Amino acid sequence: MRLLFWLLVCPIFAWAGDLDRNWRTISSTHFAVHFDISHHRTAEKVVTHAEDAYSIFRKKYGFVASEKTHIVLRDESDASNGFASAIPRNAITLWLSAPRPQSTLGDYDDWLRALVIHEYLHIVQLDTIDGVALIYNKIFGKTWSPNQAQSNWLLEGLATYEESKQTTGGRAKGALFDAYLRTQIQDGSEHSVDRVSNSPIAWPGGNASYLYGSKLLDYWLNKRGKAAAKKLIKLYGGKMIPYGINAVAIKSFGRALPEMHREWIDYEKSRYSLAAGRVARDGKRAELQLTFGGFGASDPRYRKDGTLYWINKTRRSKRHWAIRKHPMTTVHQEGPSARRVGAFDIFRDGTILAEQTHFTRPIYNFQELVVFKAGSSNGKRLTFGERALDPVISPDEQFVAYVRNLGPSNELVVMHLPSKKKNVLWKGKLGDNAFHPSWSFDGSTVVFSGMVGGQRDIFAVKVRSGHVERLSEDRAHDWNPRYSPDGKTLYFISDRSGIANVYALSLTSRILHQVTNVMGHVIKMDVSPSGKHLVYAGVVADGSDIFELPLDSERFTIAAPYVDDKPLAKRVTLIERRESEKYRPIKTLAPQNYQLQGGVGASPWIEIVTSASDVIGRHQLTLGGSYYFDTEILNLVGSYSYNRLSFPLRLSGFRRESERGGFRVGDDFLSIPETHFGADFSSTFRLYVSPWHNLNISASLGADRIQLQSGLPQPGDPTKPSPRYPDTNYGRLRSGVTLNYSQSEGAPDIIGRLNQTTASLGFTVSKSGARARDIDATVSYQLTQSFHGKNWGRSTLYVRARGGRHFSNLGSPRESVFGGVPQQDLVTALTDSLLVSTTGYLRGYARGAVRGDLFQLINGEFRFSLFDVERGLSTTPAYLRRVHAALLIDSAMASSERTKAFGVSLGASLRMDYQLGYFRQGTIDVGYSRGLQGVDAQHEWWLLITSGI
User: Fold this and answer.
1) What does the pLDDT look like over 402-421, one tens digit per residue?
2) DSSP string, 425-449
3) Residues 521, 527, 531, 534, Cα dihedral to 10°
4) In this structure, what DSSP letter does residue 363 have?
């Protein structure tokens, strides 16, 4: 019954829709690409890259897909990403926006090709199914992919390795990934094999599996050959019992994974020591480190008067602007909050012009330009629907240049601020893009980093004439250009030496000098208005920090000649035109698999569940049923969601047989066999969405029919009074409305949330047909608030309150009941991830101690860290992340016409965050609470598996 329960209480994940989108489909031999008609040419490019990837991996891995792979192109965000799944069908989703040069994804020659190769390699991995799993899937549909049970650093590591092997770019070759690993190894803080087998909290967090996996596999596949990866995929794809990765690694590579990790790390230490020697010989520049928090200091920017701004976020703080007044000092102050803010520039009066994520319709989250008055965290939007990135203000403050995102391409735009008139200054071909524009100090020229023809170089464009000049041309990646105040020198970042540094190009002699000489990686930089200082965000072992150095041309060195050791880029010829057809959901809507389970207990039972969805998620259908053989009880449940609108519509229904007990016939307590039919119609409307606020309203309408299965039981002794039977054979109408608000901000090291507010106000009412005036209603609210003081370290204070009132004209409205923590099957909780919440209970009291139709519960927790563990048993799929604790206070009150009860308790809880099976996370919660008043107060101990905080 567990699956049926979750089908009833959990909403189906759905893509919000847009009626204006015209979905089309292009089909090829092995793929079907689904897209909005505005991306037709992009879809043609994607299907060409996909067929090429199929040919490559069939030859390399002997892979033959079990079915056609569906690729869905989405452009609802300015983020760059994708994901793939082989269950229940082979499907890939690609977000089209090209990544920025400074991101981990920024090293590519063709973004769509790299993305297709990475995601299709996942299909190769996950669709390689053999042995018992293959037989099982033949019967029940594709529900079991043994390769899915691998550690993420092997799954993502191999895909990242291939994205780099099959292109001239990719993360495994990129300078930024190399810097992440180099700085950690030189600092002695590289991750052990147990950490990267799971999801470490420590930097680089989620990127650790991509980084360590791709680098390790690159080393070992160069040593053992491509057949090792083929064997790894094939052997694991046939495993009946999951995990046991070392046995598979030994057969594939000749070594267990821990040995492979140690040898590879030793190799990298040797390689990086040579790099450190080269940097030392060239001489490190005199620089001042301004931040020491690591993690997220970024986007340094000088104001016209020389004041320095940057975006600062440590592992224990919120994201905010930092402001420093005087050059070459470490003294700075915390500025206003900078939620969802990216690149920015500053007017002379301290007003900030920044890109910030905003929502449209409200299903699209795009970057827009926002003006923040000096000292304010609340901005006023300057653009609407522009998808505007990287804004820079002209010297006379009359214009702003920015990048307009078009999906896989983007263009350079100049806006006249007083009139809001816009002009496209530069636009390339499909796949070409511009980033990081910057004005010359006389305002006549905009210089930018352009990805053109698979190369990222520096370009300058005249504002009046539109004349474009290419200022650099090689296969190194060049970005973030800045003019010197006299206009004679152009500074920019380049990875031409393998380490990203700042270079200075003389615009008269065309001689290139190297300015910085770092062991990490320069991410972004700026030149002061005086031309005397340079500031940059650079990679350190635990993230990124801000550095400043004087611009002394005497310290510059002639840049070494660029050595092009990249392989030749593969040029895939696009077919002139591929015909598309209207997207037809029915083609992919049929159920793909079935889940069957059963058991024996009081009555043997069997349960079957199936679900269906078309590939873009416009329609979703779930059906399930269970049957109890001894009692001949049949339960059915089903739901359907329509997601083409910006608000999803959901219809669900059920048929349930049950024995309703709790009434007395003579001296016996009997039950009534009933059949319960019901249906519900519901939807959620987003009323307001901003970078930090989310307000929506949920509404539902339902109907029930409760029907007696057989005659009512009669007392055995006819001389005794007739019993009073509960109502049955009646219908009921139900409706409900809930208003929800939320805002939240977190940090990795904080126990809980930095600040969080959630609130809901709901009203439900049901009208029974048993009697004309049978009405039952409930008004309820829930509020949570998290607090983090500036000097609290990693601690937070969490408060949760909920309450309400039940109304009924039946004389006995239903009651809310408080007391004790929930009962839980610990084994099932671990194996099936059926976890409970950490809060929401009156601990330290017997069950049902406080009950009534007017109710109120308040939970308070002061949460604090004890220590991070971040350890597991090598590659064993069990990992302990951290240990923390909480001081607890609970208070509950409930009353009715005849009774009134109140309870308050104090307690403490020890919590251990874990990860099992490489992916399932939870918290072991061991606690004690003592009720302080009332006859039902007690000492209470508990051991729960919770969903964490």
Assistant:
1) 999 999 999 999 999 999 99
2) EEE-STT-EEEEEEE-TTSSEEEEE
3) -30
4) T
